[in-house]
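S1.2 Input.
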Amino acid sequence: MHFHNQVLQTHNGIRQSQSHPPFDFTGGSVGNFFFAGARTFFGSLSAAIFLFNKVAGIPSGSRVVPAVVTEERLVLGAELRDGTRIRGQYSISHPQPKPPSTPQHDTKQQSSNDSPRKRSGSENSVSRHRQVVKSSLDSKEAISSLHQSPISKMTYLLHDPTWQRRQAQNPVATQQQWSDRHVISPEPNPLVLDAISNANCIAFGCGSLFTSVLPSLVLERVGFAISRRNVPKVLLLNGWHDCETSWAESSATADGEHIVKKMDATAIVKAVVDALDQGEAYERIVKKLDATAFVEAIVDASDQGEVYAAGSDEVDDNDAADRHIPLVTDYITHIFYPVGTEIDIDELSLANFCAARRQQGRGQECAAIQVRGIESIPADTCSEGSKSGGQSHHRVFDPRALVSALLDLTSGV
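S1.3 Output.
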């Protein structure tokens, strides 16, 4: 009842009948609705989590810790490689298909003759539902929805309750949906840092890379805490691509054919590393140095001993040699993937990426990320796989096999 009164009837602090556009709950997650209602009722996310633990019967040994403790509404922002800036999780992970007036060309990825998305009546509801559950890239509609450039960075933004209304009034101004003045750096929950410092294994979970995994990693001191923990750190790859790890570029040919491009495992590792760097001084150091100076800085830092100040507000180029930049394997030691994943894994490319952040010319063997395939099952045979848009040819981790592999890794087997 509270959810109905406080969430369904209102959005962004105004009644749904006055919202522009009205929020669409079609195909939404019951779990998310539960948290939304419980949070507005208690005025506390922690209390909502506690209630869910009791209702769902979560084992007492399990802990669910929010990455940020705040009662303020946080908004995600994404910056694409071409400079486009996008506001809001839904717009980032569920980009809308191009308008019907835009010619839809065939792509090298697509051979289906599916018709463009229809926008009226019940067909529109079904289409929105497919978007909500993160449809895979197996339809022309999904491909036409892809961003025109890969996502390069995630950040937190100030909540602006008037943005949707202004956007509806000026829909042409869509490329820059936020500016640097909107960016905020929320403090991480101290319990998160404590959990990391006491963990015997750190796993970067499956799910939407940029809107589910990385937002917890860009927080200040999280990268520092993870890099300092000498335990297995496992990146779990998804079984297929979605709209966050794929994009569509127009070719230079006369017909403007769309070419679908996808992140490989190395690009995904780089995205995680960049996110962990982002909350520390590392990001600014790496951006200011070219490849040669970057290597020299690491060598000099090794000669001088490790000197690192986490969270420094000002970074000068002259300070680069006095700071220790974590190796890739300080963040990620293992990659687990479900056997049959459609994500390309090039171990030589991974090794080269690791070497780029490692001291050079000292005769030491470069650390390598260990890659391991885990037994998998068809995505459409489990509820979570189906809800995530998985088809029969997609694979997800077999839960028992994944748990067993993580336990073996933790115990040193």
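S1.4 Remarks. Residues 194 and 225 are 9 Å apart (CA to CA).
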